[in-house]
């Protein structure tokens, strides 16, 4: 008696047959990551939304309308500080949803997870559009913040396990490619959103609702194409001509065994890597949020060739230095993205532990140098330090999935990565709070604006020292944590793994039936490469203002 054939989204359906080209999987991952990466660029909507009713000038709420009041008010405009909670929600939900559903993802497969991600992220944007139309902020919180945040978490981890299994010879590079896309999402999405809002704006409408609808529909097409582009290798698949090094001569930090996700909360190495990621991200994310005001306050008129401090500038001069600072922020985003691919690929040569040692030592030196370069008035040294810091911030995200695969094995690395992302959610709150609180505290003490960031830099150095110590303590796991052969076999059964694609009864399952024309591979890369190149081009236009 034959079993029912697998459904369109089932994991059995996406096991690649002979001749499949593994280079089709990274563009599928990029298609999803470039869409959900717009989470980084949502601040482009804050200013228009803060004037959604007043259009030219915001209709201010009375002193009796607090945060909860703004959730339901239809008579006054939302404050930017209130809108900013969406940003916090994104990263809290990303971490918690990835941790909650990571185990399900490993068993359901990346295609099903990708489809759910597309429905949540794009459906959430459509619900938010309705919230903008009815001027109900709670609908935006539920739509993009909660439902979209769940889609964000599932989409973020959907390709991790699959890419690591397709590229056992280049784990870092493979995950670096996808996670580079998450960093690049805002590069495409922010200018696209700005162009669309300009197109849809009228004397009575700021154009945000229509922009949400168009972007949700475009993202849905891309994300569904990505989800249906995912394929998983058959059990035991290896790249042609590659043989894994035997256990006794391979790097002791790279295991050939596998840990079950249910055990990781109790493993010391998991918490050490959790702290490694949390400290790296806390330091970087705090800087991202304050990069623009920091450059303006530290250098003031020097940014436009005027020997005057920030507080001495008039309105037009402040506008001019804000334009320069926007170029600085754009430059940092380029380094954030480039660092994801560069450092993750380099980690294949250096090893993951050594790569993080570089992050913490070099990063610490860079942060420590900032007050000195600011005092000396050296804009070049100041900017260079932050470019390197941001490259390592991005590199930390891209290298950590391969680090987890090395230590905990590849069977459930996507689920383990999901749990680790709670470190990101923690850092998303910790980093900005430390930086913003310290700035306000220093200003309250009467310290000049150009010096208020000095203490903050030294605190961030302290965070990196904590990360360095945790990283140095990471050791290979004791055998007791790994699954036995019987447990591994059971997990593979639950994960619907087959020894070969030919075990499935599929139409056209002949040898080589999955071979793909190089033209198709080139088109898949063009589909993600052209939007990314456009985003880089638009970013470079902003960067040019910094160097002008």
Instruction: Quote the CATH topology of the largest domain.
Output: Growth Hormone, Chain: A
- What's the main sheet like? none
Number of domain units: 2
With helices defined by DSSP (H or I, 4 residues minimum), what is the helix count? 19
H/E series, N to C? HHHHHHHHHHHHHHHHHHH
Total number of beta strands:
0
Instruction: Kindly state the percentage of residues in helix.
Output: 55-70%
Form type: globular
Overall pLDDT: 89
Instruction: Just name the CATH architecture of the largest domain.
Output: Up-down Bundle
Q: Can you tell me the CATH superfamily of the largest domain? A: MFS general substrate transporter like domains
Spatial extent as radius of gyration: 24 Å
Strand content: under 5%
**Backbone structural class:** mainly alpha
Distance N to C terminus: 73 Å
For this structure, what is the CATH class of the largest domain?
Answer: Mainly Alpha
Uncertain segments: 499-512
Could you explain how this protein is built, in words?
By secondary structure, the protein is an all-alpha fold. The protein has two domains: 9-238 and 518-548, MFS general substrate transporter like domains (Growth Hormone, Chain: A), CATH 1.20.1250.20; 253-483, Growth Hormone, Chain: A. Helix content is 67%, strand content 0%. The chain is built from 19 helices and no strands. Helix 1 packs across helix 9, helix 5 runs antiparallel to helix 16 (422-444) and helix 6 (110-134) packs antiparallel against helix 10. The N and C termini lie far apart (73 Å). Residues 499-512 have low confidence and may be disordered.
